[in-house]
Write a structure and sequence with these properties.
Layout lengths: L3 H7 L4 H23 L8 E5 L5 E3 H15 L4 E6 L6 E2 L6 E9 L10 E9 L21 E7 L3 E7 L2 E8 L4 E6 L10 E3 L10 H11 L9 E2 L5 H11 L2 E4 L12 E2 H14 L3 E3 L16 E2 L1 E4 L1 H6 L3
Parallel strand pairs: 3-5, 11-12, 11-13
Antiparallel strand pairs: 1-2, 3-4, 5-6, 6-7, 7-8, 8-9, 9-10, 13-17, 14-16, 15-17
Length: about 325
């Protein structure tokens, strides 16, 4: 089996970029170990603090964020790091060529129930003539990403990574502590009648989304009704879509007028869109391409509709 190191070399990925990828994966191995220890390691439960998003932090949120931050801050090729858990970017090596942004532990509400959680990351080129730790460094589009991926901490620890226009899957050998390739050139299966959405928000969606979802599950409207699958963690739901097909949706809603969208553009929507489109799928907001969307705020939120192109178009107004 081919290791992640060998694949990056074979793809002739820039050596400096490889170095940054390896730092992220080294952090993910440590996070995987902490997750695997469960309650024994004392990482379960809330930390009695809130992050910049106003969300209650779990102990493992804080630990995972620090593991990533510590390793990336030591990397000579990382100019700045942005995290879901940090109010502002953290300046690292002045003049370095790359920016990293991540959600250290997506789906953290699943920690205490031993559900699916994961790390989502993206790597962008640093801007010249812009202060190292400035938020303006990140004011780019999804098309500017050089690499994106996620590590899913489930029964197995799985890496999906998009680089050089390709997406590959690796599984962590926990004995040798190496990621080995288990799928080459991942392609999103078409024609799958599954969708992932938080149905608890049904009455807060626009009439268009209420009606479209109602049509999908109405047996009188279709030869075959659709099945709903929902993990409560974007990383788990998108992994299922990439593996089995279908569509993942988190449309805007009116539950909180100050926050009509849930998911963050920089370190959730951008990387997942890059992965899905590299696998032959499509990634939209409710009206346009996620990868073409311009970031204008560090923790900017957007509606997300990603997966099978036909289904995505069904949900795009």
């Amino acid at each position: 089996m081919q290791s992640i190191e060998d694949l990056l070399v074979d793809l002739e990925v820039d050596a400096k970029l490889q170095h940054v990828i390896h730092s992220i994966l080294s952090a993910s191995k440590e996070i995987s170990f902490r997750v695997g220890m469960g309650a024994i390691s004392g990482v379960h439960g809330a930390a009695e603090t809130e992050n910049v998003q106003g969300e209650t932090q779990k102990k493992l949120d804080i630990i995972s964020n620090q593991i990533l931050l510590d390793l990336l801050a030591k990397n000579p090729y990382v100019r700045s790091v942005a995290s879901e858990e940090e109010d502002l970017p953290v300046a690292c090596k002045s003049g370095a060529p790359f920016l990293v942004a991540y959600d250290p532990l997506d789906g953290s509400s699943n920690i205490d129930i031993n559900g699916q959680i994961g790390t989502i990351f993206t790597i962008l080129p640093a801007k010249e003539g812009v202060e190292d730790g400035s938020v303006e460094q990140y004011y780019q589009t999804g098309d500017d990403q050089l690499c994106a991926g996620y590590v899913l901490y489930g029964p197995a620890t799985i890496l999906l990574i998009a680089v050089k226009g390709e997406i590959h899957e690796f599984t962590l050998d926990k004995i040798n502590k190496e990621f080995y390739q288990t799928k080459n050139q991942v392609k999103l299966p078409g024609g799958t009648k599954e969708f992932a959405i938080n149905m608890a928000n049904y009455h807060y969606w626009s009439e268009f989304y209420q009606q479209t979802i109602t049509d999908l599950i109405n047996p009188s409207n279709r030869d075959k009704t659709y099945n709903m699958r929902w993990n409560g963690a974007m990383v788990g739901d998108v992994h299922r879509v990439l593996t089995r097909g279908g569509v993942f949706l988190y449309p805007s809603d009116t539950k909180n007028p100050k926050q009509p969208a849930k998911l963050r553009l920089l370190y959730e929507a951008f990387p997942m869109a890059m992965l899905v489109e590299a696998a032959g799928g499509q990634a939209n907001t409710e009206t346009n391409s996620i990868l073409k969307t311009q970031l204008t705020e560090l923790h900017q939120r957007v509606p997300v509709i990603i997966g099978d192109s036909e289904l995505v178009n069904t949900f795009t107004q």
